[in-house]
Write a structure and sequence with these properties.
- The protein is an alpha/beta fold and about 140 residues long.
- The chain has three helices and five strands.
- Strands 2-1-4-3-5 form a five-stranded parallel sheet.
């Protein structure tokens, strides 16, 4: 599986890069993940990809469990999808096509950079669940 994570930031702080790099390194046996800082640039991507918009869930009603997220990833893989794009900090109007799904990382309002760290950690957690690898709770 190939993941491209777009973040609406011009660049990332050094400590944020380090944290995200650690999770991407941990993900490398399972998948390829790339982070692209989009800033105010137009984001180009193929409409054949699965496109998921990550937004803050300020109601707390639309979050999903780690297990449900792991199942979602597994279902996409079984469905034959090999490329998934995630968009952090974008509004639906920023994207050239509609997203296939909206994903909520937390019921708290997070900055784009903290959301990126939380998301990469959840992606790693999902792969440990799908591969029966012990991971702390």
């Amino acid at each position: 599986m190939n993941y491209t994570i777009y973040i609406k930031e011009k660049n990332l702080a050094t400590n944020i890069k380090a944290a995200v790099h650690e999770y991407i390194k941990r993900l490398s046996p399972f998948c390829k993940a790339t982070v692209c800082c989009a800033g105010k640039k137009k984001v180009a991507f193929a409409s054949s990809d699965i496109n998921i918009l990550i937004t803050p869930d300020q109601t707390g009603k639309h979050t999903i469990s780690s297990e449900a997220f792991a199942r979602m990833i597994s279902d996409y893989a079984l469905g034959g999808y090999s490329k998934i794009s995630y968009f952090i900090g974008f509004s639906p109007d920023d994207l050239p096509i509609l997203s296939d799904q909206t994903f909520f990382v937390s019921s708290m309002t997070l900055s784009n950079e903290i959301c990126l760290i939380a998301f990469t950690e959840q992606l790693y957690r999902a792969y440990t669940i799908n591969n029966n690898i012990t991971y702390h709770k």
